[in-house]
Amino acid sequence: MILTIEDKNRVRTCTLNRPESLNAFNEALYDALAEALLAAAADPEVAVVLLTGAGRAFSAGTDLAEMQAMVTDPDFVPGKHGFRGLITALGQFPKPLICAVNGLGLGIGTTILGYADLAFMSSTARLKCPFTSLGVAPEAASSYLLPQLMGRQNAAWLLMSSEWITAEEALRMGLIFAVCEPDELDSEARRHAEVLASRPISSLMAVKSAMVEPTRAETLAAVERENAFFAELLGAQANADALAEFTGHRGGGSV
Questions:
Q1: pLDDT at 254
Q2: Angle, CA of 34, 38 and 42, to the nearest 5°
Q3: β pairing state of 3-8 and 11-16
Q4: Domain locations in the chain?
């Protein structure tokens, strides 16, 4: 099962479960998480969703072998929701979303934090947005959400440099809520999740709606801009060279 789901005390924990691929997102995992968010949104017994990863990674981003197949294989079959469907589900998710970054997060493993209401990070975890190293554009409205969250210069470094940042740097930049020791991450994230889950769901949803609604149009516009840039750059020379290097020399990889 590529996504495990557990309910306890009105908290639904969704665990990305492709540890052998560092929880990289293929079409099946994009679909599974999108479906899980849609189901949690509709479930009156779920107050909070807690998202984490199995093994040593939170998520290594988009599976680069699938990205290359999307460009080169005319028979490639996209998922029901895919990346864009997951981003729509994240943007519309009406309840608190908490991320517990247990290990490395690349690409969507970092940009998903723009949708988190609270994010906790292991002190040994690292984050990276490798878009410029792959010759592509940002994703998931990160070009809008991350400057809002971190400030323009912090976001510019993260999105432009393709360099790793540590948990302490992520905290200083305002990308995450707290840094935890690895063996305390799950319990600390769950403790906060259960505090929120003890409150009336209608009130939680009202607070989130009031916070998110003023930026909803700008977020959607950012997604459209990024998608246009991504379509223009995907398969272009810089991207093709980068994908060939990653998938050919490294036996596959992730954004």
A1: 58
A2: 165
A3: antiparallel
A4: 3-197
Task: Indicate the DSSP class of residue 115.
Answer: G
Name which CATH class applies to 3-197: alpha beta
What pLDDT score does 251 carry?
A: 42
Q: In this predicted structure, what is the pLDDT of residue 65?
A: 79
What whole-number distance in Å separates Cα of residue 74 and Cα of residue 205?
42
List, in sequence order, every residue forming a beta bridge with 59; answer none if it has no partner.
105
What is the distance, to the nearest Å, from the Cα of residue 177 to the centroid of all Cα atoms in its chain?
A: 16
Q: What is the dihedral sign for C-alpha 215, 221, 227, 233?
A: negative
Question: Splitting the chain (255 residues) into consecutive groups of 10 residues, what average pLDDT does each group show?
Answer: 98 98 96 98 98 98 80 75 96 98 98 98 98 94 98 98 98 98 98 98 98 97 96 89 73 51
Query: Are β-strands 126-128 and 165-166 bridged in parallel, bridged antiparallel, or unpaired?
Result: antiparallel
Please report the pLDDT score of residue 242 as a whole number: 86
Number of neighbours of residue 193 by Cβ within 10 angstroms = 26
Tokens 């994703």 locate to: 139
pLDDT value at position 6? 98
Q: Whole-model pTM? A: 0.93
Block residue for tokens 């210069």: 153
Which own/partner pairs from 169-178 qualify as long-range (CB within 8 Å, at least 24 positions apart)? 170/121, 170/127, 171/121, 174/149, 174/150, 175/113, 175/119, 175/127, 175/146, 175/149, 175/150, 176/101, 176/113, 176/119, 176/120, 176/121, 177/118, 177/119, 177/120, 178/120, 178/121
